[in-house]
Amino acid sequence: MATLIRGGRVVDPGSGTNEKLDLLIDDAGMVAGLEERISPPEGAEVIEAEGLVVAPGFVDMHTHLRDPGRTDEETVASASRAAAAGGFTALCAMPNTRPVADSGYVVEHVWSRGVEVGLVDVVPAGALSKGLAGEAMAAIGAMARSRAAVRLFTDDGHGVQSALFARRAMEYLRAFDGIYAEHCEDASLAAGGHMHEGELSARLGLRGHPR
Amino acid sequence: MRHLLAIDDLSEGEVTTILDTAQGFRRAASGSGDAAGLSPLAGRTVCNLFYEPSTRTRVSFELAAKRLSAEVVDFPAGARSSVSKGESFKDTALTLDAMGLDVIVVRHSSAGAAHRLAGWVGARVINAGDGTHEHPTQALLDLMTMREHFKDLEGLKVAIVGDITHSRVARSCVKGLTKMGAEVILVGPPTLIPAPAATTTGWGVTVTSDLDEVLEEIDVCYLLRVQKERQSEQLFPSTGEFHANWGLTSARVQRMRPEAVVMHPGPMNRGVEVESEVADLPRSLILDQVANGVAVRMSVLYLMLDAEGGAAWRR
To answer: Is the pTM of this model over 0.95?
Structure first.
């Protein structure tokens, strides 16, 4: 069944679009028309979007879904609802869960919860190192070949501290078409910091992260 | 041939001479008693100077020398030698050489050790493995095995799979195979293949991390041992993951062409680079390689030392 979104303000930074347009989506879910006025085809669903913004779904590349381990704080369901309410149709879930997403099991768990909730695309990222300890490599190949089909790998939350480990991980990821994402923080400098190091931290007597 | 230090030093014609001569020694090499009449090296002395452990290479050099009636001195440079008192490589070599040796077969953990040795001693030197640099007689016995099986090395498609970076066998085989016109594909995790192998033309190979992609087109799947210690060097996550992605499993071997074969220089880590049952299949030439090792080493010693053999070499 086709869908016509009528009278809304279509905002698409990718194509530089920012104007009132009708948007037609065909029954395969593909954009079939984008014009000032489109007549609804036979049997199409019409959504009146007067005064509303119509945009491609946003992607949040860096979210903490806290599942498994801290579902008192957040769950895949609560995060999906918040995301959908704000126009985000895809979330990339960081691996610093408990247990850490360093195996096929944990990433498949997060992925399948996303499918169960069914509101947005939940795309798990995998850890680079086992337990985020920065020493032994996580089961990168297993995560890439799991149902979660992980492509983004990161030690978010800790950051990789060893240049040799970073090198080996970057090399190894090539075998699985992986993307290496770095949490850029040198632990030896940043440890114990609560804010940026500067005038305010100096006055308040709070330890800061130097820049 | 004064020394055999690297397969890099041999021409295509010289390799062919060694392999043809080795073919002639095949029956004698099997130790069935047919060697009884052979004594071209009678009165000569061969010393196995081994600074690293070895089963195949050391024993096959000893048997090769003995089957040609040479004397053998086995020198494992370990606890029972003065190496344990701190005697240097050079002094050890000069000391043994001073007792009158014809050939020193040397294995050492430093790349270039055999070349250095050749500059110090009067004896001829055969490199039995120097660090991760070369192992020429291994490549020669592998070429012999492939030639025996496929008749022609030209155009043969050989995948070398596993830890290329730390393998002297891989380096010698790449040089030997490309020299004889075979097509070499290096397969393994990117952390275990030297980057220049893919990016420079000097190696003359293709490189991939996808074993499944090349399985159906290769004639030979040549497996390398993956040392379990490499896991702690952050080169790959686990031997389990290595096996899943680059191990020759039964499922993978079934996808190879019916005429394609499996080879391994040994020793094997069954369950890591190769599934245990696969190593024992009829299409696995692993034990043929070992048998050919004796023949090839007989050939090298003969061509090096025997007057007639020397003539064949110069021809």
So the answer is: no
Instruction: Report DSSP state, residue A94.
Output: P
Partner A contacted by B200 (CB < 8 A):
no
Rounded to whole angstroms, the Cα distance separating B128 from B62 reads 12
Place of tokens 């996303």: A114
How far does CA A131 lie from the centroid of its chain?
21
- The type of residue at B62 is E
Alpha-carbon span A205 to A120, nearest angstrom: 43
A-B interface: how many C-beta pairs under 8 angstroms?
45
Cβ contact (<8 Å) for A141 and B237? Answer: yes
By DSSP bridging, strand B157-161 and strand B183-187 are parallel
Q: Residue B69 CB: number of other CB atoms within 10 A?
A: 16
Measure A178 CA to nearest chain B CA, in Å. Answer: 12
**Alpha carbons B302 and B305: distance in angstroms, whole number:** 5
Q: How far apart are CA B132 and CA B120, in angstroms?
A: 22
pLDDT of residue B314: 60
Those residues whose C-beta lies under 8 Å from the C-beta of residue B101, and which sit 6 or more positions away, are: B45, B46, B47, B73, B121, B123
Chain A positions in Cβ-Cβ contact with residue B238 (cut-off 8 Å) = 139
Interface pTM (ipTM) of the complex? 0.84
Tens digit of pLDDT per residue, chain A (211 long)? 899 999 999 999 888 999 999 999 999 999 999 999 999 999 999 999 999 999 999 999 999 999 999 999 999 999 999 999 999 999 999 999 999 999 999 999 999 999 999 999 999 999 999 999 999 999 999 999 999 999 999 999 888 999 999 999 999 999 999 999 998 889 899 888 889 999 999 999 999 999 8
For an interface test with A, give the residue of B213, B241, B245, B246 to mutate (most A CBs within 10 A).
Answer: B241
Instruction: Report yes or no: B234 and A168 within 8 Å, Cβ to Cβ.
Output: yes
Nearest to B237 among A138, A145, A164 (CB): A138
Chain B touched by A140 (CB under 8 Å): yes
Q: Which amino acid is at B202?
A: G
Residue A210 Cα, gap to closest chain B Cα (Å): 30
Contacts of B225 (CB under 8 A, 6+ apart): B162, B163, B264, B265, B266, B267, B268, B269, B272, B273
The chain B residue lying nearest A130, using CA atoms, is: B237
Report d(CA B142, CA B44) in Å as an integer: 27
Do the Cβ atoms of B192 and B166 come closer than 8 Å? yes
CA distance A140 to chain B (A): 7
